[in-house]
Amino acid sequence: MMDTLLKSGLLLCLKISLFVLPVNAQDKAFTLNNCIEYALENNTTIGRANNNIESQKSYLEQRKAAQGPDLSISAADTWSSSKSHSNTYGTWSKSTGTNLSVGLNSSVTLYSGASLKNAINQGKLNLSAAEINVKTQKELLSLDVLAAYIDVMKAKEQVQNSQLQVEITQKELDEASIRSKAGVMAPADYLNIKSEYSSNKAALVSSQSDLRISLVSLMQLMNMPISSTFDIEDVDLEALLQENPITDPTSVYTLAIGLQPSIKTAELDVESADFDIKLAKAAALPTLSLNGSLYSYYNHDTDVNFSGQLSHAITPSLGLSLSIPIFQRKTVKNNIKQAAIQKQAYEFDLLDIKNDLRKAIEQACTDAQTANMTFASYQEQLEAEQESYKLAKKMFAEGLLSSTDFLTSKNNLYEAEINLTSSKYNVLLENEIIEYYMGENIGF
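Structure (tokenized):
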């Protein structure tokens, strides 16, 4: 009966493992870079940011085109009817006629307070800001993918720890079964170990569920349809943990402030606001334009043919037009004031972004330092619990320790392994965040 229960338990664990992580030999495990690239290609936020680039390019082209002349052609075919009175005969006569007129018109702005030039320069800034914003969105998404990827790595190792724990407890249960049948172990001690085995199997199921959830979270972040065959590539964690980035907040911030795209975008917003002020001021300045036109007409009531009339009736004109604003109901003054207020708002935004960056770096450096110290502490704890477990196992085998005390020592060791696993992945994540602030590419 006991062997049957053990076999059934192992079969259940195997089925759960296969259900949670079925691996198709044809499916390639994703590296962190693969995950980031997939996410970047399928993220809608980045798609919108790229669309904004195209939009700003279009606006810039339009602003450049505004420097050149426009050209339009006009045509009108007019029918008219009129009556006239003859004083000689004392009668009224009616006359009708049709007149076709065509014209070609063009104008170009010669001076408008440098508004065209400023609009073009502002358009260039807006385009640069849109391009940098794409970089910002990509980095933010990459950081999210990095964190989710590390969660999967941690969850996979926790599954391995749980599986190992089940295997160890199974061996202990086999030994306890033999000793119980031989009458050298109290029934209560045997039942305690049997209960521990059931608890370990439940912990394995829970860790497998956590792994599946972390994989789903990563796939959803990548905008990938959920797949039971999705898996990530194993990473040389020990080599990554050897990296020790700088954790001095001042040094990291000094380097980061010149690299962060969000800072550059905010600075460009301030520069763009300067041009808004200049454009608002230009509305109070004169506008000088050069205008030209060609005009001709055709009258149906004459004997001259169509082409003859049009060619002989051509009337060219060329002139300058000057518009000088005198009174605009304070529109320009208030527009200048509003533009200045908006610039100040962008300056506040820039200051907030710098302060937020400083705070984030200070927190990241503190977290990295804490994570490394915690990892070192858990390493020492694990070594101590391993020695304690060896002693407890020996004493339990010799009947010098109760099953309760033995299992307490065993669980303390398992908890130390869980803590160490969690802490080392925290170290990895915090170190990667520091390296990101220092300008390193996001990835292993």
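The chain has two domains: 33-79+110-285+329-437, 287-323. The radius of gyration is 40 Å.
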